[in-house]
């Protein structure tokens, strides 16, 4: 008998019981005699039977499976969010299907379709933005969805994040208070709502409050990678900027090393504040000053919110903003 073809019928036949009895044993129903339970479990172990969650879900309307759409599994920010999601999912006996979208609009739609085809009970979406086509697909499914760490500028989908605009404003204000007037804003694509509508607005608000004119020449958009930051350091070196707010830690590490290789003394000649506080901020020398985001907690709270939605419970607030801080290290004075 091929292992991959083992079904509940095979287990019932080998154990000499009904399929209903096998189902009760698998689902932990106490209304089964211990001797019968032991016999069924022995057959399950011998045949290496794995219950089909989708097939069970067709009858129960519930597969106890959650899909997690993540733009990059190697990104420390999103992987820490996913750890929080997974821990809470385990507490509530949900299984996780982790799907990498490569931060691609086309692949996001494919990933969503695949997850829905697997009859997932809910979806956690992580990303730097919410594209219109994906938003449209979300609106046409009955599966509950929660955004973890991202933003929804239309406030249509339950979300757990921080106040990115306020956090950026606080970080830039710290640089202003250190005497800087020429402060670079460096982020990923400004097509992403988190950068254009939140971080950049926080940056502008800090400048306006301090009476400093906004200078378009000090706004840089690039990729969230070390190499992009290292290359950007050359361009930054040719400006009047004496400090920078950076939208990602890996990007900030590249800028730091690029400036250092050009002979720039950080923080005496140039100050840097990054925005996530992953482990990278403590690995660099000097260590990076950073906004501190509760990454694990955002994932955990998002998953708890999703369990309530999947259980048809009411949630008092579908847009949770968690506390953040700024950790001063060695790239600021």
TrEMBL record:
Domain HTH cro/C1-type per the UniProt entry, residue ranges: 2-50
Tagged with keyword DNA-binding: yes
Occurrences of domain HTH lacI-type (ranges): 6-60
Sorted UniProt keywords: Activator, DNA-binding, Repressor, Transcription, Transcription regulation
Gene3D superfamilies, per database record: 3.40.50.2300, lambda repressor-like DNA-binding domains
Any Pfam family: Peripla_BP_1
TM helices/strands, residue ranges: none
Function: Global transcriptional regulator of carbon catabolite repression (CCR) and carbon catabolite activation (CCA), which ensures optimal energy usage under diverse conditions.
UniProt name for this protein: Catabolite control protein A
Species in which this protein is naturally found: Periweissella ghanensis
Gene name as annotated: ccpA_1
């Amino acid at each position: 008998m091929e292992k991959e073809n083992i079904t509940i019928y095979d287990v019932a036949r080998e154990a000499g019981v009904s399929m209903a009895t096998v189902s009760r044993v698998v689902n932990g129903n106490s209304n089964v005699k211990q001797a019968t339970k032991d016999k069924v479990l022995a057959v399950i172990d011998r045949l290496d039977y794995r219950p089909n969650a989708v097939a069970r879900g067709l009858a129960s309307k519930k597969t106890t499976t959650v899909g997690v759409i993540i733009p990059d599994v190697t990104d420390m920010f999103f992987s820490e969010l996913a750890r929080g999601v997974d821990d809470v999912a385990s507490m509530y006996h949900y299984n996780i299907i982790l799907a990498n979208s490569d931060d691609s609009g086309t692949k996001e739609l494919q990933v969503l379709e695949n997850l829905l085809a697997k009859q997932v009970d809910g979806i956690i979406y992580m990303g730097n933005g919410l594209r219109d086509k994906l938003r449209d697909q979300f609106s046409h499914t009955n599966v509950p969805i929660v955004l973890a760490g991202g933003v929804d500028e239309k406030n249509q989908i339950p979300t757990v994040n921080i106040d990115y605009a306020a956090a950026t404003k606080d970080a830039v204000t710290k640089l202003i208070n250190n005497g800087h007037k020429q402060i670079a804003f460096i982020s990923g694509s400004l097509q992403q709502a988190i950068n254009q509508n939140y971080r950049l607005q926080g940056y502008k608000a800090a400048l306006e409050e301090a009476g400093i004119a906004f200078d378009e020449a000090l706004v840089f958009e690039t990729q969230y990678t070390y190499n992009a930051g290292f290359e950007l350091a050359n361009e930054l070196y040719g400006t009047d900027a004496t400090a920078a707010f950076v939208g990602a830690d890996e990007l900030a590490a590249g800028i730091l090393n690029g400036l250092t290789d050009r002979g720039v003394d950080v923080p005496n000649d140039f100050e840097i504040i990054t925005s996530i506080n992953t482990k990278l901020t403590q690995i660099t020398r000097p260590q990076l000053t950073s906004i501190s985001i509760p990454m694990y907690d955002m994932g955990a709270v998002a998953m708890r919110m999703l369990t309530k939605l999947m259980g048809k419970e009411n949630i008092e607030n579908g847009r949770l903003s968690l506390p953040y801080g700024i950790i001063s290290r060695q790239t600021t004075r």
